[in-house]
Design brief:
Blueprint (H helix, E strand, L loop, with lengths): L10 H11 L4 E3 L2 E7 L3 H18 L4 E5 L2 E6 L9 H14 L25
Antiparallel strand pairs: 1-2, 2-4, 3-4
Helix pairs in contact: 2-3
């Protein structure tokens, strides 16, 4: 059973939504994109696996490019030939999970500030 085709949003709608909700993401070449800077290969793999888990759970899969200390995530809805609510919502979830800092919640200690334990560079 297939779902109806999603409606692609206009570039102006996408740009406005990103500016308000995800300012670190950008619209470029028909994709929404975000580059995460990491502290090392370990951090790069943690970001890739996080994005992979969320994408699989959502059944909406991004393109990912990575190097030693960065990961780029790109989203588009191919069936709609553009950016849809699926892309924006998955980007928002990725951002929430990758940048989660539990120390601010008072329950968890969080990653030590010692650079030996750093895995992502928070914005």
């Amino acid at each position: 059973m297939s779902s109806p085709r999603e409606k692609a949003l206009s570039d102006a709608e996408v740009t406005a939504w990103l500016a308000e909700n995800l300012p670190q993401w950008r619209l470029e070449d028909g994709w929404i994109r975000r580059t995460y800077k990491t502290a090392s290969w370990k951090g790069t793999m943690m970001v890739i696996n996080t994005v992979g888990h969320l994408a699989e759970a959502a059944w909406h899969h991004p393109d990912i490019t990575a190097s030693y200390a960065w990961v780029e995530v790109r989203l588009v809805t191919h069936s709609a030939k553009g950016i849809t609510d699926k892309d924006l919502n998955l980007a928002k979830k990725i951002e929430e999970v990758v940048h989660w800092q539990p120390a601010g919640e008072g329950v968890f200690e969080g990653t030590p500030s010692d650079q030996r334990f750093a895995y992502i560079k928070y914005d």
